[in-house]
Amino acid sequence: LKGLLGSVEKWKSIEDMKQIFWYKKTTISEYVTEHWKEDDFYGYQFLNGINPNVIKKCSELPPNFPVTEEMVKPFLEEDSSLEEEMEDGKIFLYDQKKMDGIPARDYNGEPLHVSAGLCLFYLNPEDKLMPIAIQLHQQPSEDNPIFLPSDSETDWLLAKMFIKNADFIDHEAVHHLMSTHFLAEVYTMAALRCFPVIHPLYKLLIPHFRYTIYINTEGRESLFGKNGVLRISSLGYDGMMELMRRALSEMTYSSLCLPENITARGLESIPNFYYRDDGLKLWNIINSFVTAIVEYYYPSNSEVQKDTELQEWINEIFTHAFLRNTASGFPGCFHTVEEVIKFITMVIFTVTAQHAAVNNGQFDYNSWVPNGSLLLHQPPPTTKGESSMETILETLPNVGESVNFAAMTQMLSEKYTDVVPLGAYPEERFDEPAPKQMIKDFQEELSYLSEEITSRNSELKVPYTYLNPTEIENSITI
């Protein structure tokens, strides 16, 4: 990294930050460095960037987010109102309330700040998702103004950066580590403890758990160890643990099942949402494959109920992953074939497609630290009209920290030489002709989808590649 690692100097200009990338660039990472300040690209990332599971349709403003008609009218379609746009399903909300009140870590004896903020988005007539109002703390007050696109360029940029800072921390701790890596570890451990190797569900699942325990063991040290990169985030180790604890207590089974997740957030029809489009097709392809295999070995519900190893597996997961929280909707036992199919579909989707969606674009979108940083040095602005480019440079991580974050995003977006793509089963664990044919059918469906996605991407200015089956690994290995 050209001697930049460990430097405590501040950046002299945003342009200087490009020095980090003399050795590695991608088409998208270069696009991000040029377009990160633009509002339409900012909104686009909440749909197709690395954290596509947070915004939801807003049909009524939260009482603690007092956005008025006058504030946002200039950014809506002419002769329209906020109320009308909400009724038309054109207003969306980002709300980081679960982070509220978590203390940030100390930096050189002074506490850092994390903004558990809210951001309102508007789907404009050109089908672009635009941020139109940002409040940086949950409780409205005089020193917590609502920032607008009509504010000074640096005020608006700072507000967007603080939302992105909270979003990146939430992404890394909750949507990436906890909801894919750490849940996958529980599924894996339970399978190793409960299923004998000749069990058909062991044969189905074990290829999807390859290297997961290894990478999690390594990751805990490299990300959370003494000099771990997530320890130097604004929240630090204790704050990230508390964030995961809160997120786990709120987690529901339906939030991990993509069709239900999309419906619950009211995002069925928002345009240009490629994560949804590709993800739902993948969910259905995986579901068809799992249905064929499970129904082959479990012709009726009574086989499910009598399979003590299967029941032990789901009970261990319910106990150790979801802490027996019945309100979460996660099953503690299986009564029907249908329940088994749904749960295994969710498991395979999580460790393949969902991990790819939240992992593989990290270098593309967040190696350019101004677009998304885990650490901001200055507190969020409390008044308008007092910021400058100097404020932004003081707020961003220093040279050494920026390099550290960029290196992390590169490491997490790497590919091993022995990568196994989704749907490849090189070990051939099944002996019977029927499941072998089911695997072939699965691979064919994935191949058709890959062609479809490649064809669509060829016409996009910013292609969405993370859910192309050829880009998805068969397990969490990095």
From TrEMBL:
Where the record annotates domain Lipoxygenase, the positions are: 1-478
Q: Where in the cell is it found?
A: Cytoplasm
Q: Name the residues that bind Fe cation.
A: H176, H181, H355, I478
GO terms (BP aspect): lipid oxidation
Q: Which cofactors must be present for this protein to function?
A: Fe cation
Cofactor binding: number and manner: Binds 1 Fe cation per subunit.
A GO molecular-function annotation: oxidoreductase activity, acting on single donors with incorporation of molecular oxygen, incorporation of two atoms of oxygen
Q: Which Pfam families match?
A: Lipoxygenase (PF00305)
Write down any Gene Ontology CC term.
cytoplasm
Q: What is its main location?
A: cytoplasm
* Family the UniProt entry places it in: Belongs to the lipoxygenase family.
Q: What is this protein called?
A: Hydroperoxide isomerase ALOXE3-like
